[in-house]
Structure formats: C-alpha cells, structure tokens
Amino acid sequence: MIRIPSFAVIISGMAEKNIPTIRSLAKSLRLSPTTVSDALRGVGRVDQTTAKRIRQLAEKVGYKPNPLTTALMSGFRRSRATTFRGVIAAVDINEPARFPHGPFPKQISAGARQRATELGFHFEEFIAGRNALPLPRLDSILKSRGIHGVMIMPAWLAPDVSALDWSNYAGVYTDNFIEKPRLHTVCSDHYRSMMELLERLRTRGYRRPGLMLEQGRDDRLLLRQSAAFRAFQESHTSELEYVPILFAREFSEKPFSTWFKRHKPDVVLNHYDETVAWMEACGAKVPETHGYVCLNAINLTRPCAALDLQPHQLGARAVELLVGQLQRGEYGSPAWTTATMLTASWIEGSTLRPAE
C-alpha cells in the first residue's frame, strides 16, 4: 500500500531547508501549529490579536504556504464528512434611492449561498449604510464572530466600505468597480456580450440597431455597453446605418418615442421589455418589421429575445474567489486587483426574426 507522508513529516522536511513553516512559526510564538494554521487560513476561532501577531511574523520571515501541501491537505479534508470551515458575510449597501434591490442581486446572493454551502461555509447577509447597520458597528460584529470573508453586493452608486478594518478581511465586489477600498471584482462581461449580440443581429439582417440606456447604469458599467456598441458601429460602417444611442435620465416612454420616431432603428436594445408596447404604439410590428432584445433576462415579463447575465454563476464565482483568498491568508486591499468577467448567454425569443 502506498503511504502518503503526514503533514507533520512534510513540514519537518521543509524546516530542514531553513524555510519558514507553520511549525517554526508556532515554536517562535509559543503557540500550537493548529492555531497558527487556522490564523493564516482565516478559519476557526483564533483571537484577533493573536491572529494579527501570527500574520505579522509570517510576513516578516517571508512565510509562503506550499501549494502542493495545501492541495494535498485540502483533498484529505474534502474526503471527510463536510465540516464547518467558516462564515462568509454578504454586505448589501443601503441606498435609499435604489433600495431594496431587484431580482439580480438576489440571484447573486442565491448562487453565492449555494456555493458557500458546498465548500463548507455558512453564508450570512448584512445590510449596512444609511438607515441600516453602521459600518463601524458591522466591523465589530464581524470581528467578534471571527468572520474574515466579505462579499460586497452590487451598489448603484460607487460603494464606500473603507470604514471596515480590511486588514482583517479578504474581500470581493460583485460588480464592475470599487475604489474604497480596491478589491477583486466578479462581474458580467458587458463589452464582449454586447459585441456578440450585435454580431448575432447583423447576421439576421438588422441594419439599424438602436440602444437605449439609463445614464447612471452606463456610468456604473464603466461605459462598457455604450463603448462596445459604438465600436461595433464604427467597424461595420459598410453594413450598418448609424443610430445614436439614447441616454435617458430615467426609463420612460416619452423620450423613447421621440428618439424611435426620429432615428427609426429596426431593432431596439434596452433593459425593460415594456419597450415592445412603446414600439408598437409608434406603429412598429414586433417581430415582423422591428426587433427587440432585452439586455438583462432577469427583467423579463414576457417571452423576449434576451441576454442572461448569469447572476447565479456570478455569486458562485465570487465565493470561489473569496474562499481561495481565505485559504491563502490574503487579507486587505490587494496591491494588484483583478476582474473576473462572465460572458452573457443567449436566450432565443419571439421578438426577433428567426435565424436562417
């Protein structure tokens, strides 16, 4: 029978090469190896002062976890019965003008909860900000409960969660951009999704695509949808006729009808399918004379062609990224942030002429 060396034997072998190990850290701090390991991985119930002391020493001596050893031990742990590994906190920022949020963040939360459970973590949601839990109070709650993984839910306005003591947390933001503090992000790939959608429409014979966007929404997406739309127009000038983007302060029929009658798009793209009724009120027949595509399938109230932005998968991927940080003991705002983007999937619908 093949014998796999124990974790202690592996660590001892590493110590012989003067490489900082969990065992050497524990010896220097007069703590148990288990306490040191839990503190570095952000699991268990290690006192916050002790955990901070452990991380400071680990950084000072240049401790780096052995990825092969970590993978080996993770495999052993997964082979046992599912055990509790910690809590992931989902923080929703209360914005009076846009709260409570619609179904999209709820699906992100559902996907995150399911994936957290599969990985052995509990998942708890907190509402913070104005007229809700103050961030300093939330910070004390998270610390007292030994919670180190924080997932920030999408916010309409630029979120500011810098009041949390991020030296104690690994974090991820489930939207496009966060500056206070800078965190890794998981979001939809709006640019690529728009490009793929426009190519699909071009192959179906549409020549005057028109895009309607709420101004605040496009700003929050870092102009990715409008930029992709314009780039596609400019790269297909021999095939497509120019239709200016309608930027509306709010989603309403009057500015849409004025724009639709003036510029005569043959297919309309926006986020709410009640637009079909507005188009028909202007004399269009969908899909005989005009087409329509909803840019977020979660808003559908009728059968329509649409993009599924996969919020459930966004939540799951955010949890996977967060758990990875916890396992590596990566706390605080990273020196180099990354963005994980998921491309939307296509939903065929009766508001477009069928593909040939």
Summarize the structure in words.
- The protein has helices spanning 7-15, 22-29, 33-41, 48-61, 67-79, 103-118, 135-144, 190-203, 215-220, 224-235, 253-263, 275-281, 311-328; strands spanning 86-94, 121-129, 149-152, 170-173, 184-188, 209-214, 246-248, 267-270, 291-294, 305-308, 339-342, 345-347.
- Helix 2 packs across helix 3 and helix 3 (33-41) crosses helix 4.
- The termini are far apart.
- It has a six-stranded parallel beta sheet with strand order 2-1-3-4-5-11, sandwiched between helices. Strands 7-6-8-9-10-12 form a six-stranded mixed beta sheet, sandwiched between helices.
- Helix 12 (275-281) links the parallel strand 8 and strand 9.
- It has 13 helices and twelve strands.
- 36% of the residues are buried.
- It has three domains: 7-79, lambda repressor-like DNA-binding domains (434 Repressor (Amino-terminal Domain)); 86-188 and 313-343, Rossmann fold; 190-309, Response regulator (Rossmann fold, 3-Layer(aba) Sandwich).
- The radius of gyration is 25 Å and the shape is elongated.
- It holds the Pfam family Peripla_BP_3.
- Residues 20-74 form the HTH lacI-type domain.
- Keywords: DNA-binding, Transcription, Transcription regulation.
